[in-house]
Amino acid sequence: EDQVTQSPEALRLQEGESSSLNCSYTVSGLRGLFWYRQDPGKGPEFLFTLYSAGEEKEKERLKATLTKKESFLHITAPKPEDSATYLCAVRKAAGNKLTFGGGTRVLVKP
Amino acid sequence: DTGVSQNPRHKITKRGQNVTFRCDPISEHNRLYWYRQTLGQGPEFLTYFQNEAQLEKSRLLSDRFSAERPKGSFSTLEIQRTEQGDSAMYLCASSPTSYEQYFGPGTRLTVT
Between A and B, how many CB-CB pairs are < 8 A? Predict the structure, then answer.
């Protein structure tokens, strides 16, 4: 069965303190790994799609990387507005659904 | 706003009542998905439509749940005889291809 595990569950950072979030996955035939940002009471907001090991994507202070077993979301010099829950999801070759991890709640304090 | 819209945003109902939620996908997105999210957890897949055809359903979708997408445009999710365990955020997503899914704001259901 497909599994996605995110760590840590929660992360408290000072503004400017860079860190990384981990997403470990077990899926047969990965078709894509997705990162989303979710603010309280809102739907997930799409950030990145990674398709193959070695791929990297960047957007502002966020950078996502992918290996054969895990993905990392690096937050460089975070600002308070980066506070949110970051969700990782996988999609396998056969099927249409996304399987999500439990998310990492990030709080950036000024 | 051209994003996915969902109505209502909040619904409070008594146990045993039926509820229906609506999702309007991004225009021309032929794929539509329903997910359920409980507090502190990631979204869980419920069902998937391509145009008007319901092609995949999760085992989570008990016989009290039914979803439709008439004419391949908006979709409705109905829950019959609601139970307290149905309390959750119900999320709709749409996509133009088989890759990125774009989510709506969700409908928060509270069953008392």
Answer: 61
Interface contact flag, A44 B108, Cβ < 8 Å? no
Facing A102 at nearest CB: one of B41, B91, B104: B41
Residues of chain A above pLDDT 70, percent: 100
Q: Is the pLDDT of residue B1 over 60?
A: no
| Angle at alpha carbon of residue B14, lines to B12 and B17, rounded to 5° | 105
Per-residue model confidence (pLDDT) at position B90: 98
pLDDT digit string (tens) for A1-44?
789 999 999 999 999 999 999 999 998 889 999 999 999 999 99
> A41 to chain B: which residues are within 8 Å by CB?
106, 108
Please check the confidence at residue A71 and state whether its pLDDT lies above 80. yes
Cα–Cα distance list, A65 to A40, A51, A55, A89 (Å): 25, 10, 6, 14
d(CA A43, CA A63): 21
Nearest to B102 among A4, A46, A99 (CB): A46
Backbone angles phi, psi at B77, to 5 degrees: -125, 120
Phi, psi of B45, rounded to the nearest 5 degrees: -65, 135
CB A45 within 8 A of CB A37: yes
Cα–Cα nearest to B101, from B109, B93, B92: B93
Say if residues A42 and A92 touch (Cβ distance below 8 Å).
Answer: no
